[in-house]
Fold:
Amino acid sequence: MTEPGFELLKEDAGTKARLGRIATPHGEIRTPAFMPVGTQGTVKGLLPETVRELGADIILGNTYHLYLRPGHELIRRLGGLHRFMNWPGPILTDSGGFQVFSLGALRKITEEGVAFQSHIDGSPYSLTPESAVAIQEALGSDIMMCLDECTPYPVTVREARVSMERTNRWARRSLSARTNRMQMLFAIVQGGMYPDLRRQALEELAALDFEGYALGGVSVGEPKDMMEEIVSRTAPLLPRDKPRYLMGVGTPADIVRSVSAGIDLFDCVLPTRCARNGLLFTNTQKVVIKHARWREDEFPLDETCDCYTCRNYSRAYLRHLYMAREILAMVLNTIHNVRFYLRLMERIREEIRQENYSVWQREFLDRWEDGPAGDTGEKTDIPE
Amino acid sequence: MTEPGFELLKEDAGTKARLGRIATPHGEIRTPAFMPVGTQGTVKGLLPETVRELGADIILGNTYHLYLRPGHELIRRLGGLHRFMNWPGPILTDSGGFQVFSLGALRKITEEGVAFQSHIDGSPYSLTPESAVAIQEALGSDIMMCLDECTPYPVTVREARVSMERTNRWARRSLSARTNRMQMLFAIVQGGMYPDLRRQALEELAALDFEGYALGGVSVGEPKDMMEEIVSRTAPLLPRDKPRYLMGVGTPADIVRSVSAGIDLFDCVLPTRCARNGLLFTNTQKVVIKHARWREDEFPLDETCDCYTCRNYSRAYLRHLYMAREILAMVLNTIHNVRFYLRLMERIREEIRQENYSVWQREFLDRWEDGPAGDTGEKTDIPE
Structure:
């Protein structure tokens, strides 16, 4: 089994973008990387072989969902999450914290951890820094995340400090609880929208022996420019020799900008969730497939796209499937959107390799904001 | 383009089973054949490449559904149904009659044809023998069906006669309306559960120049033994040198028995609809995947099955996906059930080829009725 580790291959001259490689026991991750989200042990609508063919090196699994159903002990007994879901590549699991904090009134936080009720049947559960690590060890993921308290927006500086300091105490406990060195453990930097708190959080965590660092508590409702500022100020301060992960982000433009701040890893439900809701990404426009304008359109979604959907189907057919609520609508749309994201990551890596990231980024963002982003205001709050 | 035609390769000595080959412009159909149902221009949950890999030579499309949405003229303009849905193989389209007659109060039959309201939005439509052919010519299917009046069960002999005679008049009109000889046209034998009416219907239709013959109005609620009797008495009277199609049938046991009566073609929603509802076929049992007994089951659905699902996933994982209402549950279950049916057809053809159909059929039915059929009473009325 390959020892886990990170190799920094190149740093961009004009920006802070980095090209790298994360080794895991289940294979290599080329960074910057986007992780398709496989919440419940499946990337919704895709066979794992398809996920791989689309260019994914790694997927994300949700500890919260798998802990509740079917249960981490069951998955351990059946050989771990990789075998259970037939995905042989690397998996990152979150800690469950973000989902639990989203439960609002259904959860209660103490210094020990968080008690909550299942969204499925209301039954009581808890997560502590120690149990979150134990669950992720049972799942057997390649990258585990520390339980953190996801600071919402807006909060006072005082609330953000209390929350961040608890997150850092929990990170120390997570590190002590970990028993398997073959599974990397990443810490999460909180601190709300306060750069000084972010810096303090980061300095404390950087002094500890984590295999990677994440920025949490962004894309939680704050204005776009505030998120950009936090990422651009905080990311470059993260340890240079460790992977940097921006949790839950984002739109194509968010990713392109965050790469230039030095981020290596991304995950987001946007491509998969939009696909199921008939919102499709292309380089020139966002396509709302149910619109009558596509009714007789014989062209592929995106003539420049190499995905299976674009190679074989017309917009008219995709519209028909969507209007008829066919399963295949979700499958074909997901194939396209995931390929769009993974192709974007291929392009990003290539532009860094060619020492052209700065120029390419500017062109991309100009084009994107005049086109696809302008179309829909880059709404990310698509209903599930 | 290959001229359409039927070749009878072998007739079983002990039964009336036949081995054959239907040539179409889109490829060959090995008979006896099962046609997976692709109602709205997709076999629900499967990519067309997957349908082919599972062993399907031909699929069925529903004229009623495609006529209403997206419309046959749209499909014609986009190059026909094969191209629209990316299925390069043979397609049989029904006439829409069965679905229209299922509309009950929403439809009105006259000698001219049938007027009805769309189940989607209530808007008015009509089908005549001539328009049903024109629609199927626009779709470009390889095998078209005549518009028929599907006689329900029970009806009086007088009602069955009136209905059958109209169906036969409509068949003559369909034949006159057809303009493209590259698309085969099959007539449908009605006559309810009255063998003499069936014989009369059949003799009249056999005198006309159809490329194939179907038995309609079976599996419409009649007792199982009545259906068996009608099929076993009527099928052997159908023209020997033409394909024989039993519409909408059926369970594995129905298919095995009907093959021994001389049927060549089958279609049924059972494998696909059951799959979506978590009911899975195996040779030893019907598996209701949501049952708690499969919660931790590490074995494949069917260890003797060669399908992708059985090669890669445990019953525990399939149960998890089903309970979590994941799209992949429907996809993996459909792959298995369709493969089960198509593998059964491969076996049927092989047993006829080996001159062993009679012996094999007895063994199969004994085993099936002690096992899978006994489990669930072979209910076919699974909710959509």
Summary: Chain A touches chain B through 36 residues (CB under 8 Å).
